[in-house]
Fold this protein.
Amino acid sequence: MSSQGLESSTASAQDVTPDHLAIAATPKRFGLELQARGDARELAIDGVPLRAIVEAVGTPAYVYSASHIAGQLQALKAAFAGRPTLICYAIKANSAQPILRLLGQLGAGADIVSGGELERALAAGIPGSRIVYSGVGKRPEELDAALGAGVRGVHVESAGELAQLAARARALGVVAPVALRLNPDIDPKTHPYLATGLRKTKFGIPMQGALELALQVARTEGLRLVGLTCHIGSQIMDAQPFLDSLARLRPVIDSLARANISLDYLDLGGGLGIPYAPGDEVVDVASFGRQLVDATADLGMELVLEPGRFLVGNGGVLVTRVIGHKRNDERAFVIVDGAMNDLVRPALYSAHHTIVPAVVPGDVPLVRADIVGPVCECGDFFARDRPIPWPAVGDVLAVLGCGAYAMTMASTYNTRPIAPEVLVSRGRFAVTRPRRAVAELIAEERYPEWLSSLA
Ligand code: LLP
């Protein structure tokens, strides 16, 4: 490496503990194991080395750990044991069918935000009775499909949407179960794009109008008020913002009780966070559960939670191969074959993802480098100014924390087909979504017959 003229960068990187050594203390947090391979060690998921998976499917690829995902759900369920609670997995985080089926088999429901997600959840075997339908806008045909599937609740966000839902319910001759999504105006102190419970955002019904709208639901033919709901944001590390939301919702619940309107459920949304860097805090899920169970003990209704990232975020990595190096006066670059179309979070939210070599290197000098993809955008980076053991071309890197909002936010920008997905469990793995060929992308399109007349 020193022969590559990176000395200045190297010097400033030597004082830090590199991530591959830092995660060795707690690899489980990131859904990983370290396996011995001769004298070296390598990263594995559920007993399978990443190397073996890459040999089979190539790079880039998303690799998911069934045991991590199942374990997260079990931990959350255990934290709420003894209190009627339904965990509706926010499937926008990762809507891979096998993951939906796995979580559904373990008793989870689904939080959906589109007709497409409804179809996915039903196809995975999650019954309508365990599905809640969130989102700030819903088309009439999506409402019809949700009512037809018998969802547990449609989470309504405005008076206009309420009127539309009532019309659809009457047209279909059914009673629509309604939960009002309130905006409690709570600041979860997270990335501005991820704070959805503030008054200035597009989400939810303002608190001032909440009671009146709830009473209106109860009076409207074709509607039944089944709950109240809120979702204040993402990557929240403790119970306090949820308790604050509950405190804001309580007066509405109490007023409804005085009007003899009882609710089936209270939904406090999703948003539980995960560690992305080795030193990040970890949610104490038992304490989180205890606090919410205590705070809701007097409410005779089911509690619904909508976690996405918490269940799957650290149950997945993106494996990518180094395809080149580059250096200018300012910086060193490691060029990999994964890109912002596979993982947009660094570009969109300046999100930090830990990046470690799939085979733990020996005594390789650390270099501060930008880890970038081949897409023609300055925003196409996975990390900036990151101390990493300088990799060779051909080495495989694992981008951690890619179980949530990686594949589901992927695109085919730069005509890069969506990367394959692999699910690993107990020493075996399956390619659950094969790599798409560029030819398939092209074959999806049509030339209008009049196009040649424009020549
Ligand atoms: N419920 C509702 C109504 C939501 O809007 C969301 C996420 C969730 C539940 C699940 O939130 P979670 O538990 O996963 O934090 N793309 C961003 C995250 C956007 C979240 C949008 N709503 C990211 O990559 O961080």
About this structure: Residues 66-310 form a domain with the TIM Barrel fold (CATH 3.20.20.10). The pocket of LLP is lined by residues 90, 93, 111, 134, 194, 196, 231, 234, 269-272, 306-310, 345, 349, 404-405 (CB under 6 Å). The radius of gyration is 24 Å. The first strand starts at residue 33 and ends at 37.
